[in-house]
Amino acid sequence: MDTAIKAEWYDLHDADREGFLSWLHGHHLPALQARPGHIWIGHYDRAPQHGRSNPPGYPTRVEVDDPNVPRGSQYLLVTAAASPDVFFDPNLAAPAVAETTAQLAKRKEYRMGIFIEETRVSGPDWYRHLPGTGAPPAIQLGNYLTSNQTDDMDLALWYRQMKHG
Fold first, then answer.
1. Comparing C-alpha atoms, which of 64, 83, 85, 87 is closest to residue 7?
2. How far apart are alpha carbons 29 and 26 in whole angstroms?
3. Under a CB-based contact definition with an 8 Å cutoff, are residues 2 and 136 in contact?
4. Which of 3, 77, 93, 149 could form a disulfide with 117 if both were Cys (CB 3.0 to 4.6 A apart)?
5. What order of strands is seen across the sheet that includes strand 75-81?
6. For residues 92 and 153, what is the distance between their CA atoms, to the nearest angstrom?
7. Domains in the chain, ordered, with CATH?
8. CB-based contact 115:7 (threshold 8 Å)
9. CA distance 2 to 136
10. What confidence score (pLDDT) does residue 71 get?
């Protein structure tokens, strides 16, 4: 199963975009896919947002304005694994390579998170992308910052109602 997810958000300068994406898809992603424990990898461009980001009844979106929190959002690289141990085990880490280090340094406003999937919501084509069968054609990934435990519980209940509603 692909229940552990490493998500990496970042931006690119226009001048770096073509060369970086060519290297990423031609060299880096195949190398990542070949590493032990990686089940699938997906690379996504952010879709343009139109209209309100929170329809009525959805929790209010709160933007973080802390300058220490990177805000990269143009691209999302998602690596799926069976366990989060894949992302933390130093024995599974790739050796440092100068070209890789130089290319990855082109990512601006880089941020990363490792998640463990609790549940999955799939659309009408769910049968085309069963767990463990590869990266989906599109993905929505985000999180909510709650201010207290009551709000956290309300959010968890809201998700379950939306999933089954």
1. 87
2. 7
3. no
4. 3
5. 38-45, 75-81, 4-11, 108-116
6. 36
7. 4-138 (3.30.70.100)
8. yes
9. 12
10. 85
d(CA 22, CA 151): 43
- What value does the CA radius of gyration of the chain take, rounded to a whole number of Å? 17
Return the H-helix or E-strand segment holding 39. Answer: strand 38-45
Alpha carbon distance 122, 50 (integer Å): 22
Residue 40: beta bridge partners?
80
> Whose CA is closest to 21, among 47, 46, 45?
45
d(C-alpha 157, C-alpha 59), whole Å: 12
Q: Residue 88 carries which DSSP code?
A: H
- The residue type found at 147 is S
pLDDT in tens, 80-112: 998 899 999 888 777 888 999 999 999 999 999
Per this entry, what is the length of the chain?
A: 165
Q: Quick one: which H or E segment has residue 15?
A: helix 14-23
